[in-house]
Amino acid sequence: MRSLTRSRSNRKLAGILGGLARTIGIDATILRIAFIILLFPTGFFPLVIVYALLAFVIPNEEDAIR
């Protein structure tokens, strides 16, 4: 299993969802749609804060290779 890294090639913002999709083996579009759908019932802020924290915690692809 691959380690979780932020995608360099499949990114829209920070590459979190692209990297997560690659790690679990599904299409990134499915994760992006699920993320957007979940934003509304949670009131935006919890998922936005989690996404921002993950952007700082999860390394980029090229940083993880080194």
Automatic annotation (TrEMBL):
InterPro entries: Phageshock_PspC_N, PspC. Residues 3-61 form the Phage shock protein PspC N-terminal domain. This is PspC domain-containing protein. The chain crosses the membrane at residues 35-58. Its main location: membrane. The lineage of its organism: Bacteria, Bacillati, Bacillota, Bacilli, Bacillales. The keyword 4Fe-4S does not apply. It comes from the Bacteria. Keywords: Cell membrane, Membrane, Transmembrane, Transmembrane helix. It is a single-pass membrane protein. It comes from Bacillus seohaeanensis. It is found in: Cell membrane. It holds the Pfam family PspC.
